[in-house]
Amino acid sequence: MTTHPAPPAPPVQTPSGRRRNSRIGRVLGYLATAVASVAVLLPFYWMVVSSLKTDNEVFTLPVRWLPSAAQWHHYADIWTRSDLTTWLGNTVLLSVAVTVLQVLTGSFAAYGFSKIRFPGRDALFLTYVATLAVPWQSYMIPQFVLLSKMHLSDTLWSIIAIQAFGALGVFLMRQFYESIPDELVDAARIDGMSEYGIYRRIMLPLSTPALASLALLTLVNTWNDFLGPLLYLRSSNLWTIQLGLRTFISQYSAEYALIMTGSVLSVLPIVVIFLLGQRYFVEGVATTGLKG
Amino acid sequence: MTAPGSAPARRRVGRNTLLGWSFLLPNFLGFAVLTMAPVALLFYYAFTTWDIFGGAEWSGLDNARQMIHDSTFWNAVRNTLYYTVFHIPLTLVVSLGLAVLLNKRLRAVAFFRTVAFFPYIASIVAVAQVWNMLFSPGYGPVDALLRAVGVDHPPGWTTSADWSMPAVILVGTWREMGYFMLIFLAGLQTVPAQLYEAARVDGANAWQRLWAVTLPGLRPTTFFVIVMLTINSFKVLDLILVMTNGGPGQSTLVLAQYVYRKGFEENQFGYASAVSVVLFLLCLLVTMAQFAVNRRREA
Fold first, then answer.
1. What pTM was estimated for this model as a whole?
2. Class for domain B77-298, per CATH?
3. Reduced to 3 DSSP states, what percent helix, strand and coil does chain A have, rounded to the nearest 5?
4. How far is CA A159 from CA A89, A143, A165, in A?
5. 3-state DSSP assignment of residue B49
6. Whole-complex ipTM
7. pLDDT, tens digit (0-9, with 9 covering 90-100), for A232-290
8. Which A residues 122-141 touch B at CB under 8 Å?
């Protein structure tokens, strides 16, 4: 707002009327927030509470919203009753490897797309962008055939391969680099810095927020990916948490409490990571508007 | 300044091309082999039949002919459209409504903006399992709630052929509404405050301001959201696989799942590719429509 000397307010618009309006707005806002929060959180609450109940207690009528005695031992039992350690180990390994590769190759390529001018560059970038609209589901068959021929199916490499070189990273990083003025890069060139030096010592440090966004998005995507591992990882020692949990659910279908314990443990790390890096995550989602 | 086409200029272009590609290459190699090549191969495989030894043999339009007479394929198309037609408006209205109501500086709103993302980032396997339990007929909390408000015979949800798709749609909406609410909230920040002020001076009430200022101001955002929702609906797969696996019967079998079935359960990679092409073309159509509309808007 600019600070013009305010003309005397027209007497028609009663301030009390507007205040009443805004109070109704606030109440409505609170009400909507409360209803929406319950709708969003209730399934998560139910998941946690059920993990602390006995199996018989999970489904009772009327619904019990608290366990009669919290069965904390489920959180110890699940490690011996399932291969959770293996699944988590594979998932962490894949998430870290994919994230590192995606961030490195994505930001590297984005520098070429944004700061170096050469023929064919823009057409190629358009190809990258176009594939963002192509759902993976529509080319998963030929991709699988291809990777099988390269003898990569049923290895962890397959997941790294299909996740690490997506167009998302290039797109997100290029959007950010476009906001960095070319003059800055030109000045460094005049000072005799090589292109790799500019990327390494100017662009990377300047783009930490974008790198954080990309890293978080990739990490969450890889951790939660269910379809990739479902298609590629047949041997049980390669399973990720999603695939393992899925099998556990079908094998122990009546052990509701333990199933919910596994579910809580599969969601918890991501929720923690999200809460820590929420700002970057939301920014990344807002600039790309795309995921999965 | 050297003239374009002169030797030094050409040398500079050559040097830049080399430099540029050295930056692209690590990513481009992976991208070309794992995305571009599969997309290209898709259009070859769609015209082939696979023998048991895993060899592709050209079969022309056989797959297309088979598809036309394949009632399961058409059922999958119908179910995909069923999901699309309900999932889009439902998610649109809920996320837009939440964004309009929550476009305020309240502490509770900040809390909700965080929480709204949880369904979106939580693993689909865990989420689907929880909802299946919530929906369990007779004993589940959803049915208990329905009985409490006077519904004597609540639906069987995922165990009933009539109600499994609505159950999947509800969970799909629950999962995506927070994400699209955030996009709408970002869009709301671009609606100029003076317009609201002007509408207020003209005596417009909150409802009229919504229709006259907010919704027209949000038109580009809304369009973007509809495009995203359409593509998301066409390609829905993981939610279906873990929640209903297409059942009961074929009541929730969708296009992407039919691709999965034909390809990975029956090893008919040729036919599965032909079905994939349909999925691909559907999404291409949506994207082209988006381009056309955007261009008209810019013109």
1. 0.88
2. mainly alpha
3. 75, 0, 25
4. 14, 12, 11
5. strand
6. 0.89
7. 999 999 999 999 999 999 888 888 889 999 999 999 999 999 999 888 888 887 766 54
8. 124, 127-128, 130-131, 133-141
